[in-house]
Every structure is written in C-alpha cells, then in structure tokens.
Design brief:
alpha+beta; SH3 type barrels; five-stranded antiparallel sheet; binds biotinyl-5-AMP
Length: about 260
Amino acid sequence: MEISEIKNHLSAEIVGEKFFVYDEVGSTNDVLRELIGDGLAADGAVVVSDSQTVGRGRLGRKWLSPGGVNLYLSALFCPEVSLRKSSVFTFLASCALVEVFSGYGVEATIKWPNDILVGGKKISGVLTELGTSDGAVDYLVIGIGVNLNLPEEFIRREMEDISEKTTSLSILLGEEVNREKFCAELINALDRFYGEFRRRGTGAIVDMWIEVWGFLGKEISVDVSGEVVSGVVERVDANGFLYLRTDKGDLRKVIAGDTVF
Ligand code: BT5
C-alpha cells in the first residue's frame, strides 16, 4: 500500500494523523500495541499492513489475511470511556464501515456484535482489544479487516468451510477497488464518528448504531458461550448491551456472544 496515495484521500483530524504502513506483519493489532508500548503511538494512530501472517478474530479465531488484496487496519483510540462502555467502539467502527460501503453503492448490514455482511455474506470484521490499568481503559485498539479485492477463486480454494458465507467488494462491484482510497475513506469515517463520540458521548454512537443495525423490536438469536438465547430486542442500553424478551417472558441481558441466523 502506498502511504502517499492514502494521504491524498485523507481529510481526518485525529484518526490517521500518524500512521504506519507495513508489507507484512503478524497482526496489525499487535504491531500497534508494540508501538504504544514504545511510546510511538498516540490517540488516532493507525497501522495498516499489506498482509498478516497471524491475523485473528475474536476468541482465538483466525482472520485470513492474504497479501496485496485486502485491508488490514488497526486504529488507536484513547477516549475517556468506562470499561463497561468500551464495546461501543466496535459499534463506532461498524457504523463507519457501513457508511463507507454505502459510498460504493453497497448496502452492508451489521451482524451483532462485530460482523459486516452484504447479502448475508461476511465482507468485514472488527476486533476490539483493550489496554487497561486498575480497571480503567487506557486505550482501545480497533482492528478492522475488509475483503476488498479478494478473488472468488481464493474464497473457493482457501476458505472451504466459509466460502458460501464470504464475499469481497470487488466481487460485488465487478471491478478492482483502489485499496488506498478505501483505506483513507475508512479513516475519514472513523474520524467523523470519533468526533461524534467526543462531542456527544457513547449514547449518540449507540443510537446511530441501533438505527443502522435495524433489529430493535425484532427477534434475534444469540449464542452466548454455547447457549442460544432467542428473543425480541426490547432495548440496547448505553453500554451496547442487548435486552432480549424471550418467548417465556423473561428479559435477558446479553453482553457478549454471536448472532446466529
Ligand atoms: C472478526 O472476528 O470478524 C474480527 C476480524 C478482525 C480482523 C482484523 S484485520 C486487522 C486486525 N488485525 C488482526 O489480527 N485482526 C484485526 P470473528 O467474529 O471472531 O470472526 C472470525 C471468523 O470469520 C473466522 O472464524 C472465519 O469463520 C471468518 N473469517 C476469517 N477470515 C475471513 C475473511 N478474510 N473474510 C470473511 N470471513 C473470514
């Protein structure tokens, strides 16, 4: 990825003010954490890599990260936010992604908590990791993987078990995507939503997210550590926790899990 080409499209204030571009890393989240440890990364710092050898998802899952085709980005946020509310930053990234996809005429949807789908197929995922001390948030590292020019053949050949559930922007558009431009657009969108958070707090991000997510008042099923909880989404609180009314009439609070369809 060409750093100068990314900069050409940047209009962000804080996010991407400092950024680091690599050809290959283990995981951009780890590189950013090392830079933080070395005192080289401040609020808004961004790490981008052309490929990742050990890209990861949540709960030790793998994120397939072939070189030269996709976007692997980690952004550092040092907000005043409590531990309880930190998952709102996953929402912030999801809103930014949906907005950028819509600029390409692609209607993306959010699968709670961290997947971005188009036509039911995963195109992007968000991995939020925290740095804490004494129970308080020092920083958040938001890792984002986006399938940009991932070819159909790669998906068929290398992603057998999930090939039916995976897509990329180039497949949807039928043409190559300029990765640098997309990267800058995503940084710009993250910056705008971060500005919104700083002005109006987590509640504003949750409200926007609820709107984009679109499942308030609808029934969903969530896998919570192996137990599937189904119910109508009665509300989403300011921490981003879901409240599901089950058919037995109980109200179940869901903090973490995976949506199942
Ligand atoms: C995620 O986890 O979706 C978060 C992915 C975050 C990746 C970024 S890349 C930059 C930064 N550096 C990192 O090391 N990670 C972040 P999760 O919800 O746990 O989903 C993981 C699952 O998605 C896997 O188990 C596969 O089923 C599927 N998957 C793996 N690679 C994929 C890909 N390239 N495209 C679509 N689905 C994929």
